[in-house]
Specification:
Number of domains: 1
Radius of gyration: 13 Å
Structural class: alpha/beta
Distance between the termini: 32 Å
Helix content: 25-40%
Shape: globular
Strand content: 15-25%
Number of strands: 5
Largest sheet: 5 strands, parallel
Low-confidence stretches: none
């Protein structure tokens, strides 16, 4: 098990999918951890501008780190981990691409449909 001294913090997190579950569950949890210096949401991706604004404005994320395409977010680099919070039929695609970019993935279930 890693100790906090061995863990690179804050963990740079990207959100793939910024809809309701991210706004109501993932973001509030991450907002608890952020002041402790454990995590930082450093990029977000969602095809809907309203979802990008809802989260991006709340966490004061620069426009350069708000992506309409998750591939652009992954290509920009700088992420340690992504949370996949998209419709079920997209989980596998998003997870495989993030893993291919050598980013750790937390995916909602189901992994694939």
């Amino acid at each position: 098990m890693l100790t906090q001294q061995q863990l690179k913090t804050p963990i740079q997190i990207g959100l793939i999918g910024c809809g309701g579950i991210s706004q109501k569950a993932h973001l509030p949890a991450l907002e608890i951890l952020a002041p402790m210096g454990l995590v930082q949401i450093s990029a977000i991706a969602d095809p809907l501008e309203a979802n990008l604004s809802a989260i991006g404005d709340r966490i004061h994320l620069s426009s350069e780190r708000r992506h309409r395409n998750y591939r652009d977010m992954l290509a920009a680099g700088g992420l340690d981990l992504v949370i996949v919070a998209t419709p079920h039929h997209l989980h596998m695609e998003h997870t495989v691409e993030a893993l291919s970019a050598q980013v750790v993935v937390i995916s909602e279930k189901p992994m694939a449909t």
